[in-house]
Amino acid sequence: MVANPFKLKSIKASESDLQAQIIEYLRFEQNRGRVVWFCRNNSGGMFKAKQFLWFYRLFLRQKEPAAKGKADLDGQLLGGRYFALEVKADGEKASPEQLAFLQAVRDGGGISAVVRSFGDVQSVLFGELDKKFLE
Q1: Cα 27 vs. chain centroid, distance in angstroms?
Q2: 84 and which of 44, 66, 80, 105 could share a cystine (Cβ 3.0–4.6 Å)?
Q3: Backbone angles phi, psi at 123, to 5 degrees
Q4: What's the pLDDT score for residue 83?
Q5: Smallest Cα–Cα separation from 72: which of 110, 113, 109?
Q6: What mean pLDDT is reported for the chain?
Q7: What is the spatial distance between Cα 52 and Cα 69, in angstroms, rounded to a whole number?
Q8: What distance in Å separates the CA atoms of residue 29 and residue 5, rounded to the nearest whole number?
Q9: Architecture of the 15-43+53-129 domain
Q10: What is 65-125 written as a DSSP string?
Q11: What's the rounded mean pLDDT across residues 97-115?
């Protein structure tokens, strides 16, 4: 009998783990006074009286109302600038609806990006915006 050789595998952080780290980082920046408020958004819906009810309806300019696409996190920086962050694990991509929402935020003068770590959030909110965060 030949045993399978042992192989180390890198641990891939889940999206919920990344969100928890980013929320902790945003709380840190909130305590420093640079983030005024932020919100963790849940999407989806629920059944009530045998009818599916969406948690929200998103109305973007020149688009049909949608029940998906809003970013995972949004908030406001000191000075009034709105931000929206879509959190994705490595190898995952934002949906077309999510990208449309992020573009609408940028079109309105806000900050938006797809982020994969609290370091990405730090760069997007307080440093140079790299084009890699837009997709």
Answers
A1: 15
A2: 105
A3: -65, -45
A4: 98
A5: 113
A6: 87
A7: 18
A8: 45
A9: 3-Layer(aba) Sandwich (3.40)
A10: -BSS---SEEEEETTS-EEEEEE--TT----HHHHHHHHHHHHTT-EEEEESSHHHHHHHH
A11: 96
